[in-house]
Amino acid sequence: MRKFTKAATGTAVTGAALIAAIGLAAAPAFASVNQAVVSGSPSGGVITATATTPTLTDNTTGAKLTCTSASATGSVLNGVYTAGAPTAIKVGTITKAAWSTCKLNSITFTVTAGTLPWNLLVTGVTASGSTPVSLTGVSAKLTGLCTATITGSVTGSFVNSSHTLSITGGSLSVSGVGGLCLGLINNGDSITYKANYVLASTAPVVVTAT
């Protein structure tokens, strides 16, 4: 996250919003899904993924945070899953999450994952190789000149052809704001986190939901 800008004013100092975004959103509305099949996962089901320049935006103030990269480790076993149908089928968990060089202009903030693991859910049927998914139980903390905690869920899709988990939405909730946030991020603000996590070549996972 290289630039953190406030929508209309450009008040640069609130890297706070940045972290918030990391945390993630309120539980999403789910479509109908009956079964999810996972294949291509390595023995033991341990997967790793990385994302370049993930961003988080405070939807209330317009403040935006960018990190140079993000990484995640999870457990996704091959198999046929039905528990949780027809709303959300759990196919794995995220056990580690990290972000690197998160900045608001030249001011660096540290973003860390909160309580783990996070649940990886399939929330709709696969269409054109893309499967709707969500991560629930997400939490993250931002520390630096400004502090904040983000909790909730994020939504997006898993694209089989590129083995990419694309996070595009979710209604995040901010709490525990403190320090020099300068109004760029506030308790109760909604945050959007966007990132494309590409799985390592050792984990060519494919998800098919019907």
UniProtKB/TrEMBL annotation:
Alphabetically ordered keywords of this record: Signal
Keyword Signal: yes
Secretion signal, residue range per the UniProt entry: 1-31
Keyword Signal: yes
Protein name per UniProt: Secreted protein
